[in-house]
Amino acid sequence: MTNWLPDLEHGKGPLYLRLAERIESDISEGILAPGTKLPPQRNLAFDIGVTIGTVGRAYNLIRERGLVSGEVGRGTYVTDHKETSLVPPPQTEPFGGTRGPVATPGKIRMDSTAAIEVGQSGTMERLLAQISKQYPTEIASYSRTLPASWQQAGSKWLSAAGWTPDPSCIVPTLGAHSAILAVIAAITVPGDRIAFEDLTYCSAARSVNLMGRRSVIMQTQNGSLTPDDFERHCAQQHPKLVFLMPSLHNPTATTMPEEHRRAIVEIARRYNVWIIEDEIYGSLTRHDHVKIANLAPERTFHIGGLSKSVAAGVRGGWVACPPHLAARVLTAHKMVSGGMPFIMAELGAQIVNCGEADTIRAKVQTEVRAREAIARSAFAGMDFISQPLSPFLWMKLPDPWLSGTFKNAALNEGVLIDDEDEFKPGRTEKVFHGVRLGLTVPRTREELQQGFTILRRLMETDNASYDSYS
């Protein structure tokens, strides 16, 4: 173990970042040679007069940079980075969850919740032709402006439950996922903790890890975060940001009670936590629940888009930001996405502003309602959660089925579904024995019914009789 003590008097930024930079500098200069054991976090914190959390964040940051390695109980050691710098670090967890990068062809797809096809192509064809004639120069170049109509469309689409965001606070994005990444990039730095529910939209959590942030997993009850558990994590883990889906939670199809929303807002204020309110499904269900952004506009990023209720291929999304952060999120979105294509932003804005998005949404809602009724009939007597306008349902599997085993059995029978691991933001001992069944991608109700029949038959079959040798 070294007697090394860093000098943090010089430098800019937070103490943990200055400490990380000092460690990296001393490694590059040979002061900390490969194999050197860094001081224990508690000892170093005492010696230099900072909190153990500051040292922990710095050590995590340099570990993410590949400069050190170690395990709990062994300590933290400087790696031989000159020898390993040309070798990519091994992936310790699935890069993209439990889905394959390309859907298996010839299967009944219940692993997606994209908007149902209800004849959107005719509207898209007309609007795209109109945009090409109106803006021939803009569609041939980069987007360097932010037309007021784009922001007005976002304000209109996100408005709900008596809340209408100020258009000046709206940032158009390449879908809701791109909006999430832009917010994370804008208000957090590597090493920051971001809190997720124990089941959630995990593409966001995986993206967080790729960006050098750390996931904090919060426990839920009945599919929803409880204020008590949120406060416990705020006090112990100090997350910078919490990601929530309060209206039609993915994948549990639950809705957060209003009293929980209000309590979570007050806790976030006490601990100075930012909030992402992902309302991508809210635009489809149109529940009259108070929006967190309406309760805490100074710290909430309210995100929505067209993918679940109009057309996923348009990649239309918007984020309503706290007033002083819209410009920062706009810049961050350009950095993480490469910029907003004019033709996509204009298409998303026009389809909302001319009212066609509402027309398509009404058709999608009608079809979703019919398909959800088919699901209720097909799985009568079984344990599942759904809502009349939910494009998916959360199925509790009967004994002795396990989630991953059932997913493989369904695939073998020609049906693609999502197991619970697809929605876990990290390793956890909690087991839900659940799967999510999407209702919107099968082209016909008959194909959907066929898939339900296969799945019900599997659930009623003892999985010991399932032959998985193939």
TrEMBL record:
Pfam families: Aminotran_1_2, GntR. SUPFAM superfamilies: PLP-dependent transferases, Winged helix' DNA-binding domain. One of its GO terms (molecular function) is DNA-binding transcription factor activity. In the C-terminal section; belongs to the class-I pyridoxal-phosphate-dependent aminotransferase family. Keywords: DNA-binding, Pyridoxal phosphate, Transcription, Transcription regulation. The keyword Disulfide bond does not apply. The keyword Transcription regulation applies. Residues 13-81 form the HTH gntR-type domain. This is GntR family transcriptional regulator. InterPro entries: Aminotransferase_I/II_large, HTH_trans_reg/aminotransferase, PyrdxlP-dep_Trfase, PyrdxlP-dep_Trfase_major, PyrdxlP-dep_Trfase_small, Tscrpt_reg_HTH_GntR, WH-like_DNA-bd_sf, WH_DNA-bd_sf. It comes from the Bacteria. It comes from Phyllobacterium zundukense. PANTHER family: HTH-TYPE TRANSCRIPTIONAL REGULATORY PROTEIN GABR.
